[in-house]
């Protein structure tokens, strides 16, 4: 039996190769792989020795040879194939273990142009695809995690089960498809093309989930290979595995607090903020966020953009939360949180104030397809706000208006946020009319609506929403503008002596 080994990821290779040799397999290896095996005292023939052909073009052509690929592709049950192998003196290859040049890592290091293209694997992709095509006769391994299981089957049965062979072949095709997708994405990105005619999304499964939105639905969590994100890079420090719904709310909570440089706490539920507050004292920020809607906070998810201290951990004990995500935890605070049976997550160290995700796209599933868009990541429009009413906002109102505007883009549409003292006091999410969203926010705020400010994720088509807010005591508002009735909105605000800013940008979140 003959195995061909050609890997960039050398994890577990020596142990695997040694196990094959103990089972009597002959090993053939490409130069780098063979050098590693030799250093481990494992005998392997070179590809040149098998093909009789030296490596060409500085290593670009090594395994692309009939004596390699005929040995892989020949069907053992086909008499003509067997005869041709014998005539040409070609030994069949029964196992191929290969993974590919580290293109993604090279791109992440900043390589580009010709240097980056040198990290595009040709021979390895061809080996994997050939072996996967003939998987009934050839064992193909693209993932080092599979080495031990294959060895165990070979030791126990002398061969590998057909079902295992099929799974390994599928993994090989997935490996090459994901690799090609990364190259494709990079080339399109360099050309500034967001939406090519054909788009492949390389996904890597991080974990299976207990179930989806409901117990009868299956679910899993995948990472987009070309992207880095808080949730894909977060570390779980305690608690049971997160659910589908918890991951959605962890994402919402972390995205909100990442929009703020000052210490900020967000409480999230149903992909919406329940309460958000900023304060130099992170404990006070939490208490203010909690007061925004103390009833809905029960069973929510917490996002904190500062390390969690002991005082904050103690403050959380009075309410049941499902999970928390933060950039770090003091040791004594972590011990307190663990006693509350929270799912505790540490966000990646480099994921503080979130920047634009280069090349990233937001996806929304529809029947039979996907809607894709560039992400609504920008808060840089704040310098373009325009005061349109007779009264301009005071400095205190302006601070609250900017805070509310950052919050409202995380609220499902139609979305309204009432804020006062850098804390939300009422949130109206997911309404089908803007006045209903205002009414919801005002009702939740109660007396706290007085002297608050209001942010709307889209323009007011009619003055009724502004009138409801004014009667509740709201003193200033911020909205995109752009309605054919903008003049009417301005006149309504002036009538109530409200200050109003137009942002010129909408923040719908469906």
Q: How would you state the average pLDDT, rounded?
A: 90
**Spatial strand order of the main sheet:** 8-13-12-11-9-10
Summarize the amount of helix as a percent range: 25-40%
Total tally of structural domains = 3
Radius of gyration based on Cα positions: 30 Å
Cα-to-Cα separation, first versus last residue = 58 Å
Strand content: 15-25%
Low-pLDDT regions: none
Q: Specify the CATH architecture of the largest domain.
A: 3-Layer(aba) Sandwich
CATH class of the largest domain: Alpha Beta
Per DSSP, the total helix count is 19
The beta-strand count equals 21
- Characterize the overall form: elongated
Structure overview:
- The chain has 510 residues and is of the alpha/beta class.
- It folds into three domains: 2-190, Rossmann fold; 236-346, 3-Layer(aba) Sandwich (Cytidine Deaminase, domain 2), CATH 3.40.140.20; 381-502, AICAR transformylase, duplication domain (Cytidine Deaminase, domain 2, 3-Layer(aba) Sandwich).
- The chain is built from 19 helices and 21 strands.
- It has helices at residues 13-22, 31-39, 47-51, 66-73, 79-88, 103-108, 113-117, 123-133, 147-157, 162-190, 230-233, 244-257, 282-292, 310-315, 331-339, 395-408, 434-445, 464-472, 486-495; strands spanning 2-6, 26-29, 45-46, 95-98, 139-141, 203-209, 219-224, 235-238, 264-269, 272-278, 300-304, 321-326, 343-346, 362-366, 369-373, 386-387, 416-419, 424-428, 453-456, 476-479, 499-502.
- Strands 8-13-12-11-9-10 form a six-stranded mixed sheet, with helices on both faces. A six-stranded mixed sheet has the order 16-21-20-19-17-18, with helices on both faces.
- It starts with a strand and ends in an 8-residue tail after the last strand.
